[in-house]
Every structure is written in C-alpha cells, then in structure tokens.
DNA sequence: CAAAAGTTTGGCATATTCTGCCATTCAGAG
DNA sequence: CTCTGAATGGCAGAATATGCCAAACTTTTG
C-alpha cells in the first residue's frame, strides 16, 4: 500500500537516523515541508513499520561495555532442535547484541559486548560454551574500531 | 566527574534505550521522579557523553537493506599506512556499518548491509577487494537472525 | 482537453510538553 | 544538633505537538 518511498520520505528517514529526537518543526524545515504534513509522514512511516523504534545510543565505554568481540560458533549438530535451543539461550544473555545463523564456514556468528577481556573470557567459559548445542567457539577480538554507523544506506 | 551512575540513572538509561522518544513526563513517572529533576538528569547524562545520541531504527528489510553479512579481511601488510587507508576507504562506503581491526586470525572484521546477495557480491567485487590494502576476503552469510538488540547491558 | 475524484499540503486552535527559576527537602559533615 | 551542599518538586512562560478543515495539486475518467 505505501508503494515506495518518495524523496521526501527518504530525506525524513535520513535525518531521523542521525537525530531521532529532532523536533517536528525542525524536521519539517529541513525537508522543506510545513509541520503538519511532515508529522503525518512520520506517523505513516511508523505505522508501516519502516521506522521500527527510537533508541538512545549510549557510549559503550562509559557504561562498562567497552569491549566488542565477534564469536564464531560451531554446533555439534545442525538440526532445528539444536538451533532453536541455541537461539533461546543467546536471547537470555544481555551481552549478546547480535546473533546470526550462517551457512558458511561456521554455524553462528555473535557480536558480544562486555567490560573487558577478562569478563568476556568468563562469559565464554561460564555461559557460551556451556550451551549444550555448542561444539566450539573461535573469537575475533577487535583492537580498534575503524567505523561504527547506525545509518542504513537508503537508495 | 559524574562519579558513578546511581540506580535512577541506570533506570533512565534502560528506558531510553528502549524508547528514545518517550516524553520527559512519562519518563519521570516511570523512574519515580517529577519531571524537573528527571530532565535535569537526562541533560547531565547527555553532557557527560554517556548518552551519545538518539536515532531512529529502521526496519532493514523495508528500506532495501535486508541482507547483513560479515566479512573477514586479510591485508597484504599490517603497517599503519595500510590500515589508515583501509579505514578511510570503508568510512566512505555507506554499506559498511561496522569495521574493526582484529588481532586474531584475520586483520579486520566488517558488518556490511546490502539489498541482497547479488548486490553484496557486486560490492565485494567492485569496491571491497579493490581497496589496495586488501589481500583476501572471507564472507559469512547469515541465513537467519536469532537476535538483534540495541540495548547495552547495564550492570 | 476538460472535469471529477482522490491525495497531499498549509494554517489555525487547542492540548500537551519543555524549559528555567526558586523555595523546600534531604543527606552528610562538623 | 546545626550547618552546608546537592537534589527535588512545583510553578509560569515559551515552544511544540496534535487534530481539523479548506485549498492546492495530481491522477483518473469522460
């Protein structure tokens, strides 16, 4: 029903991806509309689920979540039962920010956030490797962040 | 300066990580304060950089960014010059959402967002592998998303 | 080409929220 | 117990959001 996004919609989305708390008045000025139709478009984008939600982005280092690591996981078996239980387990761990099942070299990729290497090691030893489905884990530890973006590219 | 976060600050951060556009009146009610001191705390958290920014989270599938892939990159050499140029290059690509230098098996890990496998393949062939520093790339393609969170764990 | 239907826009009135100020309350030190 | 500093709650004015309606625009239809 909301066929495609016109240039104004994309402009709105671009702005809101950079500043999710901009006032509707300023947003309207920025995209070249008056406040009324601008707010209406935002509401439609929300109702269509194109805008999923608004969130505050915290500085990881300042809230004790300074270390991001990527873990690649191999399962003992690949049946539905195993992956289902694995999914339930990782959803319970707040340290696991993202988790994907892959078809490549390994079975799952996780992005995990902790305070430091020691607390990551504890998480891996005490929780991650104790999930019954898990055969082994390989960890890539970033030394430096070259880029971290929250803006999806809009064609 | 802002020694530590007290329980009310953490409560505020937890709520704002779930709903970055909640009105200050509702936020105050939720954390058990009146609007005035609540707004004051939020402003202090912003000024301290603990709240970095507010963003709208879009549904990737609905804006033509439905495929997330992880790419592991090996460099030809590991000197500072090479990594610097690599960083500049990836920052220019909007498809690259995150990029970290690693000390493990590979030299860099990237999270890349595109429309579909075909457009990813084109991105890798036309852009990623053409960065002079890049020796080789291995890609893990997720089949399914088990978890995607935007809330950092707050101890 | 013209007329009609539907959609989008802009402006206005009202309700809600934000913002800054001040007196009061609370916690801790002397 | 008293003093001091910080945090809180309430209030008034300013800014913003919200809903409604007429006008302008776009698209379809005759």
TrEMBL record, chains A, B:
Pfam families, alphabetized: AsnC_trans_reg, HTH_24
Superkingdom of the organism of origin: Bacteria
Domain HTH asnC-type as annotated: residue spans: 5-68
GO cellular component labels: cytosol
InterPro entries found in the cross-reference section: ArsR-like_HTH (IPR011991), AsnC-type_HTH_dom (IPR000485), Dimeric_a/b-barrel (IPR011008), Tscrpt_reg_AsnC-like (IPR019888), Tscrpt_reg_AsnC/Lrp_C (IPR019887), Tscrpt_reg_HTH_AsnC-type_CS (IPR019885), WH-like_DNA-bd_sf (IPR036388), WH_DNA-bd_sf (IPR036390)
Cited PROSITE patterns: HTH_ASNC_1, HTH_ASNC_2
Keywords: DNA-binding, Transcription, Transcription regulation
GO MF, one example: sequence-specific DNA binding
CDD domains per the UniProt record, alphabetical: HTH_ARSR
Gene Ontology BP term (one): regulation of DNA-templated transcription
Full protein name: Lrp/AsnC family transcriptional regulator
């Amino acid at each position: 029903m909301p066929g495609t996004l016109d240039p104004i919609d994309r402009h709105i989305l671009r702005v809101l991806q950079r500043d999710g708390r901009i006032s509707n008045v300023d947003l309207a000025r920025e995209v070249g509309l008056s406040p009324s139709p601008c707010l209406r478009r935002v509401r439609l984008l929300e109702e269509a689920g194109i805008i999923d939600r608004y969130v505050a982005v915290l500085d990881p280092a300042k809230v004790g979540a300074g270390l991001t690591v990527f873990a690649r996981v191999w399962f003992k078996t690949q049946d539905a039962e195993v992956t289902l239980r694995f999914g339930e387990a990782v959803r319970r761990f707040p340290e696991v920010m993202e988790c994907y099942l892959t078809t490549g070299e390994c079975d799952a990729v996780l992005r995990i956030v902790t305070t430091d290497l020691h607390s990551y090691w504890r998480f891996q030893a005490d929780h991650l490797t104790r999930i019954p489905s898990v055969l082994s884990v390989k960890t890539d530890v970033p030394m430096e962040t070259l880029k971290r973006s929250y803006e999806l590219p809009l064609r």
